[in-house]
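step: validate -> pass
step: tokenize input -> pass
step: predict -> running
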Amino acid sequence: MKLAEALILRSDYQKRMEQLKNRLLQNSKIQEGESPNEDPKVLIKELDQILGDLKQLIKKINNTNLQTAFDDRQSLTDALTERDLLGQERKIYSALLDAAAMQHDRYSRTEIKYVTTINVRETQKYVDELSQKHRLLDTKIQEINWLTNVIE
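step: predict -> pass
step: emit ->
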């Protein structure tokens, strides 16, 4: 199985777990004298199976990421960390831009005037650079995911 396929399977397991959680919650309490739409014991058994399968899959994915070279200086795990941090940094600076660009209408000279404390143009340029780095890194990661077999 390719790493990309394992990641898709992991996502499917996580969605199924969420659905099972919701079904369990819906059937955890019923009116006295009624019976649940689904047997919680059966749902719990299915949940346990998915959790076990997911645990094994995540271990394989993590092991593969650790042992797969991204380039000559870092592993795929290192590249994933870098991509995640780039994404977080980009979100922070984008939020900063949104806050700085917020317009406050003044209706008279006596109202408080707000001024931007950052250079919006430079910050926007930096956000664009972060976005480009993130895209390029993500593209290479996706390529490796489709070329790499999961290590058993």
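step: describe -> The longest helix spans residues 40-67.
step: cleanup -> pass
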